[in-house]
Every structure is written in C-alpha cells, then in structure tokens.
Automatic annotation (TrEMBL):
SMART domains: BAH, PHD. The keyword Signal does not apply. Residues 187-218 are annotated as: Disordered. The lineage of its organism: Eukaryota, Viridiplantae, Streptophyta, Embryophyta, Tracheophyta. Residues 138-189 form the PHD-type domain. InterPro entries: BAH_dom, BAH_sf, Zinc_finger_PHD-type_CS, Znf_FYVE_PHD, Znf_PHD, Znf_PHD-finger, Znf_RING/FYVE/PHD. Belongs to the SHL1/EBS protein family. Residues 21-136 form the BAH domain. This is Chromatin remodeling protein EBS-like. One of its GO terms (molecular function) is chromatin binding. It is found in: Nucleus. Keywords: Flowering, Metal-binding, Nucleus, Transcription, Transcription regulation, Zinc, Zinc-finger. It comes from the Eukaryota. It comes from Cicer arietinum.
C-alpha cells in the first residue's frame, strides 16, 4: 500500500452525504460538475483519504463522454458510452452525488433493462493526444460503422453480416417484424437454408456467432 502523506490517512470507505450509499476504492461514481446545467461527471475511485481536519478527498480516474474527447461524439457512440481516460484527479468527496456501474461493452449489450446508473466502456482514452485503445474495432453494414447498442440491426442469414434497417431500405417497424432477412448480395443464393432459431436483432445478442469483421478506428 502506498504511503500517505503526514496528517492524512487512508479510508476504506466513504458514505455519500445525505444517503446510505457506501463508496469504496474501485467503485464508479457520479460527481457534481461546477456547471449544474451539465450532466454529472463519471469517475472511478482509486483512493479515499482523510486529512487532520476530517476533510475527505478522493483520488479518481475520469471517464470521458464522447463529446468531451478531442474527436467528439460520432454516429456509433451510444448514449451511455464512456471512455476510461488516463486523467487522474483529486476531488472533495462531497462532490460525489451517487454511484453508477460502468459495464464492459459485452456485458452492457446483454442487459435486459438499462437503468439510469448503467454505462459502458469499450475504449481507453489518452486525454492529451486523443488516442484510443484499442485503435481498431469491428465494423458492420454497408455504412461500415462500429456497433452502436442503441441502434437496432438485422442479421443476414447468408453472410452473417449485420445491417441498419435504413441502410437496406426498411423502417425500424418493418425490421422488428422480420422473421428472416437476406441481404442483396446473398439474395441470389438459391441454396440458402433458413435457420430454425429465433431471429437475432443485434451484434451483441448473447450466444450469437459473429463473423470476423473489417476494422476501423474509433
């Protein structure tokens, strides 16, 4: 364990003011911004300290929202997407408003219900340079965009690629009613056998085999 400076001591936990919610190192929290018109900041608590005046401060690692990154928000970024940055900071524990959960991308796509406290992260982000890790992700559809879990997609029974309904000339309502779908490139294959399983509706659906996809940067 790292040594604390004179007059400071490490705390195992902190109870959020006005609540019974307990925060520990490793937890993700919502922190009050100075501009109250903005959404709360999201951070991962790395350490909790108390000084000799009983002031509690937390060392945090910030998550960035896409619009806070150098490249900005893009079409494939989900509403609840965050980037784990290399930006560390020390803040008063009193600025913690609540707790949240930052899921892995895979686990987020398996959630049956997404709550207000649910977020996901698939990239780490270098705040100074705008670089991402990984710097390439799978892309889908004719538009060759990474998967956005907020968007409905349909899977071709032939090539197993995934498509946005709008990119193949159908509405969301029509896509939801589909029992089978074959893309234009595969529709000439007369030997295509239709599967007997339920029709999957997103690349993140549990238990579905995804093809190896082309790659592009975030």
């Amino acid at each position: 364990m790292a040594k604390t400076r004179p007059g400071k001591k490490d705390l195992d936990s902190y109870t959020i003011r006005g609540t019974n919610k307990i925060v520990r190192a490793g937890d993700c929290v919502l922190m009050r911004p100075s501009d109250t018109s903005k959404p709360p900041y999201v951070a991962r608590v790395e350490k909790i300290e108390q000084d000799n005046r009983n002031n509690v401060r937390v060392r945090v690692r910030w998550y960035y929202r896409p619009e806070e990154s150098i490249g900005g928000r893009r079409q494939f970024h989900g509403a609840k997407e965050l980037f784990l940055s290399d930006h560390y900071d020390v803040q008063s524990a009193h600025t913690i408003e609540g707790k949240c959960i930052v899921h892995s991308f895979k686990n987020y796509t398996k959630l049956e219900n997404v709550g207000s406290e649910d977020y996901y992260c698939r990239f780490e982000y270098k705040a100074a340079t705008g670089a991402f890790t990984p710097d390439r992700v799978a892309v889908y559809c004719k538009c060759e965009m990474p998967y956005n879990p907020d968007d409905l997609m349909v899977q071709c029974e032939g090539c197993k690629d995934w498509y946005h309904p709008a990119c193949v000339g159908m509405t969301i309502e029509e896509a939801k009613k589909l029992e089978h779908f074959v893309c234009s490139e595969c529709s000439s294959d007369d030997d295509l056998k239709k599967p007997q399983t339920a029709f999957p509706v997103s690349p993140g659906s549990d238990g579905k085999v995804e093809p190896k996809r082309r790659k592009r940067g975030p």
